[in-house]
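Quick review question:
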């Protein structure tokens, strides 16, 4: 999702010599293959957006996989970039790197000041290692490697897996399927009380290109809207956009995750960037992409495709 958005933004701004590889073409967990790619292609600027990601359930069930795959990808790409003379690299992390009970809104300086949220600890530790490796290369070798920490993202090319997706795509799919099936209610995880911030992925892409051109430094840069919404209110909003009119029930036997996670985005604003897409508009855009590219297959619904 993020990589394709950055690619769209680069093309929009007139960049032409863009190098991309799909996972089937280049497995970033394989060090030799990554080094061979950098040796042959010699990219000057690298956006490192690749990651193994998922929601609470995926993180809890695959702790070791989330740590290994993300560490391997990050270290292989960042090290090869340094080894083959990359001028600048931008590493994309996640707001989950910050302590579970960090003061709100969370400033970049909150990193490593407290315990992490246990439900995504493995992913967070891997991302912290990646941004710290960028910092250490800068300090030891004088590289120009930067990092950006986005809040919860959503938008075109999101992952709508029924169990492994993040909250926004999970809700879009769940309410769409319930609407299609005429289900009287939809069950959502937790009690709906956690507060979350959401950023449309194309807004992030604009910031990514902006920072690549205008920012250097060891401290990361938060990317978000500075606005938050409870999961309960988010579910209502998604249901409205989708057109689902049934009941929303809350399964309190399931985990809530971090109670609040709002980023302080004053640094990005001071650099000259602010988000452009309001939440309701972004949800509508994401839902249109879902309808066009995910839930349709020869005229059949997503539910029918699973049978």
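Suggested answer, residue by residue:
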């Amino acid at each position: 999702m993020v990589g394709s958005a950055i690619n769209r933004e680069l093309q929009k701004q007139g960049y032409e010599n863009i190098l991309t590889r799909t996972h089937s073409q280049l497995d970033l967990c394989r060090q030799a293959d990554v080094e061979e790619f950098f040796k042959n292609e010699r990219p000057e600027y690298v956006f490192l957006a690749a990651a193994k990601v998922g929601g609470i359930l995926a993180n809890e069930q695959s702790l070791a996989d989330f740590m290994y795959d993300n560490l391997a990808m990050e270290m292989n790409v960042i090290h090869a970039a340094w080894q083959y003379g990359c001028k600048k690299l931008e590493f994309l992390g996640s707001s989950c790197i910050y302590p579970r009970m960090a003061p709100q809104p969370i400033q970049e300086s909150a990193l490593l000041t407290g315990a992490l949220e246990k439900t995504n600890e493995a992913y967070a530790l891997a991302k912290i290692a990646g941004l710290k490796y960028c910092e250490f290369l800068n300090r030891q070798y004088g590289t120009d490697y930067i990092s950006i920490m986005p809040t919860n993202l959503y938008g075109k090319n999101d992952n709508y897996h029924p169990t492994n997706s993040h909250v926004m795509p999970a809700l879009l799919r769940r309410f769409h399927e319930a609407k299609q099936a005429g289900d009287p209610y939809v069950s959502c995880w937790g009690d709906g009380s956690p507060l979350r911030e959401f950023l449309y992925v194309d807004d992030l892409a604009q910031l990514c290109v902006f920072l690549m051109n205008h920012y250097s430094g060891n401290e990361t840069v938060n990317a978000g809207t500075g606005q938050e919404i409870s999961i309960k209110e988010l579910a209502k909003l998604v249901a409205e956009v989708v057109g689902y009119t049934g009941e929303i029930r809350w399964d309190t036997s399931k985990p809530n995750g971090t109670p609040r996670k709002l980023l302080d985005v004053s640094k990005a604003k001071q650099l000259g960037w602010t988000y452009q897409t309001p939440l309701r508009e972004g949800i509508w855009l994401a839902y249109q992409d879902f309808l066009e590219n995910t839930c349709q297959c020869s005229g059949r619904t997503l539910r029918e495709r699973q049978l």
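Why it works: Residues 63-83 form the longest helix (21 residues). Residues 297-307 have pLDDT under 50 and may be disordered.
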